[in-house]
Write a structure and sequence with these properties.
Chain lengths: 181, 153
């Protein structure tokens, strides 16, 4: 499962990915590409099945994500993860832009996606209410969760959401394959 | 049922499907492996069984005839494949593949894609199918048929 991460700089994309991938991974495979982009691979098991989903997460700085060099890498992503900082209104409003740019690469396919509000530990500084973000996510067909990488809260949740959604898509597609003959 | 092909008489023999596990053909590599939908389903002679890819492209599988065969027509039945490349090798080992054909397939809503490639007769011991891109996250490959003759034993 090729997972596109997007979001403004400093919202915690790298921190979230690193925290998730380094926590108890049995077969952690990290590659630092010469381009300054990191590919992280982690296997997530799907509850109530014997299957697991291998996530290929490309992590890069927000501004590099759509450079010419990255274009090729991002053909046909399987899942979207958009991250914003709950203390930063601008990072939330930019999510629409990130989503549009990611969806432009999906060739009309349905992609599971999750919107992640990070930095919930900064309670007094929250600028984006959870309800508002949830409503926007729902309209956009994204699932929603909030995390605090600093407090190690919910860091696995967005990845499990994506893995489960992707697995569900696979099961539906296999049903279609059966119905063809 | 077993069909026995006599080498010297091959020109007069009716051609047969060489892509059958019952003929000794094997799939020796496949880049996806859901054990419920294994690549062996491609060469079991049935369109009802299939191999699935489980995410990301390109994906490929390699068919080993275990002998040199002469092929005049290839047929693949699949679903949601967008860009397909077929390569052949005449080597003893699965190396030195050369392009046979590359094609963009049509999207067929709710029906199998059946793609026939009528090619100038060629020899091969291996065929490699590369699914370069697709119309969805996953594709299925139901059968591959290679019409032709066993060249020598």
């Amino acid at each position: 499962c090729k997972c596109s991460h997007a979001g403004d700089s400093a919202v915690g994309k790298t921190a979230l990915t690193q925290m998730f991938c380094s926590d108890g991974a049995h077969f952690q495979k990290n590659y630092t590409l010469t381009t300054g982009v990191e590919l992280l691979v982690k296997t997530v098991s799907v509850p109530e099945t014997s299957d697991s989903v291998e996530l290929f997460i490309f992590d890069s700085a927000g501004k590099e994500l759509f450079s010419e060099m990255m274009e090729k890498l991002w053909e046909q992503p399987n899942a979207l993860c958009i991250i914003y900082d709950v203390t930063n209104e601008q990072s939330f409003s930019n999510c629409a832009k990130w989503l549009e740019r990611l969806r432009a690469r999906t060739l009309g396919m349905h992609l599971p996606g999750v919107l992640v509000g990070n930095k919930t530990d900064l309670i007094g500084r929250r600028a984006v209410e959870q309800k508002r973000a949830e409503e926007w996510a729902e309209i956009q067909g994204l699932q929603y969760c909030e995390t605090s990488v600093k407090e190690m809260e919910n860091v696995e949740v967005p990845f499990h959401i994506l893995a489960n959604s992707f697995h569900q898509l696979y099961r539906e597609k296999v049903e279609t394959f059966h119905s063809l003959v | 049922m077993f069909l026995i092909i006599q080498p010297k008489l091959s020109e007069r023999m009716k051609s047969t499907d060489l892509c059958l596990s019952s003929e000794g053909t094997e799939v020796i590599l496949a880049t996806s492996s859901d054990e419920k939908y294994p690549p062996e389903n491609i060469i079991d002679g049935s369109s009802e069984t299939f191999w699935t890819t489980t995410g990301m492209f390109p994906q490929e599988f390699i068919i080993n005839f275990h002998k040199c065969v002469k092929i005049s027509k290839l047929t693949i039945q699949c679903y949601l494949v967008r860009s397909l490349r077929i390569e052949k090798s005449l080597s003893k080992d699965p190396v030195d593949f050369e392009e046979c054909v590359e094609k963009d397939l049509q999207y067929t809503e709710g029906a199998l894609q059946t793609e026939e490639f009528s090619l100038p007769e060629f020899q091969a011991t291996y065929l490699r199918f590369i699914i370069k891109s697709a119309f969805d996250h996953f594709v299925s490959v139901h059968t591959v048929m290679a019409e032709g003759l066993v060249d020598n034993i």
